[in-house]
Amino acid sequence: MTADECIRGRRSIRQFTDKPVSHEVLASVVEAASFAPSWKNTQIVRYIALEGEAKDRIARECTSAYARNGEIIQNAPMLIALTFIKNRSGFERDGSFSTPKEGGWQMFDAGIAAEAFCLAAYEQGLGTVIMGIFDEAKASSLLNLPEDRELAALIPIGYPAEEPAAPKRKTVEDLLSYM
Question: What separation in angstroms does the CA of 65 have from each of 79, 94, 114, 132?
Fold first, then answer.
């Protein structure tokens, strides 16, 4: 699969088969995703894989703001909590900000890593969807995150039980300008 095929073919998957995701396949996905670029190569992203009751508890207790996310998580064989180490990306060693974007680089790096993870999963035949609507405080508590970590996104992962069509895309003319 070429990079172009991977980028154009990957979809947000919300229906999964019952087939479990092997820990070996997940490790290969994380290894590939570890090559995502990050601010000054800080590599702040960390992944937590949830299965069984741990996954179902997040679905039950952390998705009241958008119940459909709870259903999607319950339907997936595995849930990835994408977290990052705080106060490194976008910061100098003395703790000051490197740019006017201040700590915004943390979420930027988490977003790059999330997409690299999803593309690597797609290449392995897996489907994913990146979720941002959930009770972050409750989920962080259930994950027992240390003080220096922050939860960026939840990513249900599994073998797709659907093949959604590509949503309409903006044209290059809409997206690109020259000066």
Answer: 18, 38, 22, 11
- What does the block give as tokens for 32? 């590939």
Rounded distance, CA 45 to CA 81, Å? 10
Q: What domains appear along the chain, each with residue ranges and CATH number?
A: 3-161 (3.40.109.10)
* Model pLDDT for residues 60-105, shown as the tens digit of each residue: 999 998 999 999 999 999 999 999 999 989 888 888 998 898 889 9
CA atoms within 13 A on the CB side of 2: 3
Residues 154 and 134: beta-carbon distance below 8 Å: yes
Closest CA to 149 of 92, 96, 104, 106: 106
Please say whether the beta carbons of 121 and 1 come within 8 A.
no
